[in-house]
């Protein structure tokens, strides 16, 4: 059995950053990275954006040069999954029969895209979008198909629909919510997004779900719960992920309410030498005084780095403000904070219906009278830091709303 000082399970962003974090503190300790996929770690955000619209290839999304792992003394094990973790004997079992010993372990096993539990979901032409293989298959299918259906009105669905429309395909989106990005977008923004999608030939059908997909071998149509049928020879499902927490559950680690791996402020799990990072983690967030779990790039990146540094002996708490970004057509926006729940917003700047790229706005969100986050697009660069500082300070709505709305008030004075 090979024994390493550090073993990292999962070759996504969090796993790759964990290795980098370890190496920033400990340049000599042995490291193994077990990447379940056949590829070295790569970025997922481009998969629903540039990788679909034509900028293909692993090299474009790889997180590191191919020589990085050798150069940094990291044993990269691709195409093999870990199947068991034994915390008591500090050992990991791999699917190819190997066993790896560890002093410190990190779980960074992310998630897998969900399929819908309806008839026809396994027909060819029905895809999920999580891996580079998924993106390659969807792009190839899009070149030969006549019309696409995207199921899901959150990020993956919205980005996939925008990309397919940019390829010139007629696209229909269906989703059960009342508007696009419903959990995030206040009504005026939701309506504006819809106008933007419709102006680019995407048919948006909120409040609608597919009940079955039909076709001989390849999908040809979808039956919807409003009784209508829709022709589509390409279907993309953007309906969420199932967390890859099987190893953690079987190893007896503490698991939270929604199936996430519970970690402390140092990103350590309930087993002393096992850390965790990325999509699978529920961590105690100091800004909001509650546990958070976030499926976004920046959280995976920063948690991986922090977990790696802590594994190598630094032991500093994870305190980053949650952040993410999305690109829809020409609109790029950024979000800081925790928008899981909000009941009031303040708009600073202007929304431009149908042509959001002309808009410059920040939506400030409040829950029970306290600020919880901001969603910003097209704002001046020098507002980015004050926006984050404001969210961290969590001011009260009644003390700040009026001045926040007023464009002539310098954000730094708030
Ligand atoms: C198409 C797409 C677009 C996105 N766009 C954005 C965006 O614009 N902005 C944003 O903020 N976020 C975006 N995200 C989300 C972001 O990419 C994820 O939050 C991030 O990838 C999570 O990283 P992770 O390392 O925790 O998990 P993952 O990226 O899921 O990596 C986990 C890895 O672990 C492997 N693994 C699982 N189990 C095992 C095992 N037992 N043994 C070995 N390996 C295993 C998996 O195969 C996988 O490679 C997007 C995600 C997708 C899919």
Mean pLDDT score, rounded? 94
The distinct ligands, each listed once, are: flavin-adenine dinucleotide
> What is the terminal-to-terminal distance?
59 Å
Give a count of the beta strands, DSSP E runs of length 2 or more: 25
Fill in the keyword field for this structure.
414 residues; alpha/beta; FAD/NAD(P)-binding domain; Enolase-like, domain 1; seven-stranded mixed beta sheet; five-stranded parallel beta sheet; 11 helices; 30% strand; binds flavin-adenine dinucleotide
What does this molecule look like?
The chain has 414 residues and is an alpha/beta fold. The protein folds into 3 domains: 2-112 and 241-311, FAD/NAD(P)-binding domain, CATH 3.50.50.60; 115-237, FAD/NAD(P)-binding domain; 330-413, Enolase-like, domain 1. 25% of the residues lie in helices and 30% in strands. It is built from 11 helices and 25 strands. Strands 1, 2, 3, 4, 5, 6 and 18 form a 7-stranded mixed β-sheet that branches. Flavin-adenine dinucleotide is lined by residues 9-15, 34-37, 44-45, 47-48, 81-82, 108-111, 129-130, 156, 244, 247, 278-279, 295-298, 300, 324-326.
